[in-house]
Write a structure and sequence with these properties.
globular, 3-stranded antiparallel β-sheet, 19 helices
Length: 439
């Protein structure tokens, strides 16, 4: 067993909570504790998700569980009724995989849409979650591919840098499997604060899939009213997934659907974001600008508004990413390779639930301060911050073996799964009533 001494120190969940509150500029008393990150990883149902499908499960030697437990403790310290929030943050990391019965698949993500592929001089992750992504393979590589096997053959003859540059330009979610530099996970632009004359913020959630809807759901539990806004032509893709999971993220929200291709639809969208106290969005900024939505202008026009952008790569505002490939870009697969000699995916679309929890904490903390902020949250840097990944000289072998031993020996029950408060509203069920109320 390795006796490494150069491991990044991991903080306990209460220590993480205090650090996050300090970063966000709020003061609150943190209460509660959390399980050791190895035990929390197993008890959240994540242990079966890492490693080769026919091999033994592997433990990531990273304090991801402690970080999300800490983020949720920080959020609980800021709300009036913390008992309405989930029991812990780790639970949220494993919810989808437990509902859907997902299992480890080595160099394939648990959902099967993202793969680690060897290149001429390294390794990349490519996420082909949408059918139209496969149509971009020929423009990307100069040759069409109809299967993962044929795609792997083509990629193997190309260098990483060229694959990344061309893929990003085409809007493909592609990432390099490597350790990256740690950058700030939050970029806040203060525009002006305002005293709130109400205790219940109105949240307009323009996001889809997992990270943004989870943030909106947590804000709802914290006491907010949440309106879920979707495009008629491109509704939330999660509606086509596991209905139980969709209900967990969206039950209790009012559903509004608008036709952004029409002048009326764009006008209604602007009305909604204009009256919101908090806006959550995860699209590329240029997409909203094309609809006439200028975040900076709207925040300045309504003092106290908080606009939270969940961005895959922070400052690279037009780069696309999803939970699995963002996790690879953060260095999680590289750490698994260092610890176990096996590069593999960590968790289930891991960047999504982590960013969702951090996003909810950030939005609520800034609203408590009086708002007036345009906030860019970098999902890849949130994951790096949560994982406390070291540099290339870090030796994770000893911790990985010790933590796996703790997890395998643990006989406690898995964390109790949450049950949805009800069914999510059908698409657009509240469109007429919501628009009538704000006009």
């Amino acid at each position: 067993m390795s006796c490494a001494t150069n491991l990044p120190k991991f903080r306990t969940a209460p220590e993480v909570a205090e650090q996050l509150l300090d970063t966000l500029g709020v003061s609150a008393e943190v209460q509660g504790t959390a399980d050791h990150p190895a035990l929390a990883w197993r008890r959240s149902g994540l242990l079966p998700l890492c490693g080769e499908p026919n091999g033994e499960p592997l433990m990531p030697p990273l304090p991801l569980a402690a970080s999300v437990d800490g983020a949720l403790l920080a959020l609980k310290a800021l709300v009036d009724n913390p008992t309405k929030l989930p029991a812990n943050g780790s639970l949220l990391l494993g919810e989808r995989s437990r509902l859907m019965g997902l299992r480890r698949a080595g160099k394939s993500s648990t959902g099967g849409h993202c793969r680690l592929l060897e290149t001429l001089d390294g390794r990349i992750a490519i996420n082909l979650a949408r059918d139209e992504d496969w149509d971009l393979i020929e423009p990307w590589l100069g040759r069409a591919a109809t299967s993962w096997e044929s795609l792997a053959d083509i990629v193997a003859g190309n260098p990483v840098d060229a694959l990344l540059q061309q893929g990003i330009e085409l809007g493909l979610p592609v990432a390099q499997d490597a350790l990256g530099a740690n950058e700030p996970w939050i970029d806040e632009h203060l525009i002006g604060t305002s005293a709130h004359n109400h205790d219940k913020p109105l949240v307009v959630d323009l996001s889809g899939l997992w990270a943004g809807p989870l943030a909106g759901s947590l804000l709802q539990f914290a006491g907010a009213e949440v309106i879920k806004v979707e495009s008629i032509n491109r509704p939330d893709g999660a509606r086509r997934g596991d209905i139980g999971f969709f209900n967990l993220l969206n039950a209790g929200k009012k559903s509004v659907m608008l036709d952004f291709a029409t002048r009326q639809g764009r006008a209604d969208l602007k009305k909604l974001v204009s009256v919101a106290d908090i806006v959550i969005e995860a699209s590329r900024p240029r997409a909203l600008r094309q609809l006439g939505i200028i975040a900076e202008q709207l925040v300045s026009e309504m003092p106290g508004k908080i606009w939270v952008r969940l961005m895959a790569y922070g400052g690279d505002e037009n780069r696309i990413g999803f939970g699995d490939d963002i996790g690879v870009s953060a260095g999680l697969c590289t750490v698994m390779d260092q610890a176990w000699g096996e590069p593999c995916f960590v968790g289930d679309a891991i960047a999504d639930p982590i960013a969702g929890i951090y996003g909810a904490l950030t939005a609520w903390a800034k609203w408590k301060q009086g708002g007036g902020s345009l906030i860019n949250l970098s999902m890849v840097d949130i994951v790096r911050q949560a994982a406390r990944i070291g540099d290339a000289s870090t030796d994770y072998i000893g911790r990985a073996e010790k933590w796996l031993g703790l997890a395998v020996a643990d006989t406690a029950d898995l964390y109790q799964m949450r049950t949805s408060s009800g069914e999510a509203e059908p698409s657009g069920a509240s469109t007429a009533s919501v628009m009538e109320a704000i006009c």
